[in-house]
TrEMBL record:
GO terms for molecular function: ATP binding. InterPro entries: AAA+_ATPase, ABC_transporter-like_ATP-bd, ABC_transporter-like_CS, ABC_transpr_LolD-like, MacB-like_ATP-bd, P-loop_NTPase. This is ABC transporter ATP-binding protein. The keyword Transport applies. It comes from Saxibacter everestensis. Residues 2-231 form the ABC transporter domain. Keywords: ATP-binding, Nucleotide-binding, Transport. PANTHER family: ABC TRANSPORTER RELATED, IMPORT ATP-BINDING PROTEIN.
Length: 231
């Protein structure tokens, strides 16, 4: 579970500061998806960055699985992030020279002491995840050999490599047509249920919102529940 309480985040803006998040609170339980929508510049990406522990808020509390992130050192936060948070950015940012499997394994193989056992575990995990996102036949393909939807599936599989309890997804459908976008949302919903992640998903496309467990709208940094969508 992830819980954000009374989060405020500002950025420098000339001589003053702009408020990107204004006293926002939310809680996402495992196995559910909270959709976040709102106009451009309303603070959605900032909220995801705070939830992913990539940015520390000016004030407020972030807690992941009951562990208070506020007050942790940068090293402690980075470790918690690595072990408990998966992030799907809007652009897949895949490395052009790597195969689908390697996109998933590269971070887990880098910097680790070489061990055959560990290598096999990482390879098996990547294979299982590529299968789960419907790409078992594309394991050896490089990004230019894949469609936009397939690249986004790799992006999602990669975020799940470390078996995170929190999944942060930023605009996963923005580069896709309606049908492929809808299939990606279905996949996120399915993986959230199967892997019991607490998922926060930002989308501009309101047609996806009725399928989410909870829907919040951001306006000028403030977060409000959208009762018309919430189940
Ligand atoms: N690194 C930064 N430095 C300064 N201001 C920033 C920074 N990041 C975001 N902002 C400002 O914070 C506010 C919220 O931006 P944010 O990117 O979170 O909005 P958003 O809802 O995700 O927008 P979009 O839908 O266009 O991606 C905006 O006024 C933006 O200009």
């Amino acid at each position: 579970m992830i819980s954000l309480s009374n989060i405020t985040l500002t950025f420098p803006d000339g001589d003053s500061r702009v408020t990107a998040i204004d006293n926002a609170s939310l809680e996402v339980t495992r196995g559910t998806v909270t959709g976040i929508t709102g106009p451009s510049g309303s603070g959605k990406s900032s909220l995801l960055a705070v939830a992913a522990t990539l940015i520390a808020p000016d004030s407020g509390l972030v807690s992941i699985d009951g562990v208070d992130v506020t007050g942790m050192t940068k090293v402690e936060t980075a470790r918690l992030r690595r072990e408990t948070v998966g992030v799907v950015f809007q652009q897949p940012n895949l490395l052009p020279s790597l195969t689908a499997t390697e996109q998933l394994t590269v971070m887990n193989e880098l910097g680790q002491r070489k061990s055959r056992r560990r290598h096999l575990v990482v390879q098996a995990r990547a294979a299982e995840l590529l299968d789960a996102v419907g790409l078992s036949g594309q394991r050896d393909k490089r990004p230019h050999q894949l469609s936009g939807g397939q690249r986004q599936r790799i992006n999602i599989a990669r975020a799940l490599m470390n078996d995170p309890s929190v999944l942060i997804v930023d605009e996963p459908t923005s580069a896709l047509d309606q049908e492929r976008g809808s299939a990606i949302i279905d996949l996120v919903l399915q993986l959230t249920a199967e892997r019991e992640t607490a998922t926060m998903l930002v989308t501009h496309d309101r047609s996806h919102l009725p399928r989410m467990h909870d829907v919040l709208t951001m306006t000028d940094g403030r977060l409000l529940r959208s009762l018309s969508f919430s189940q």
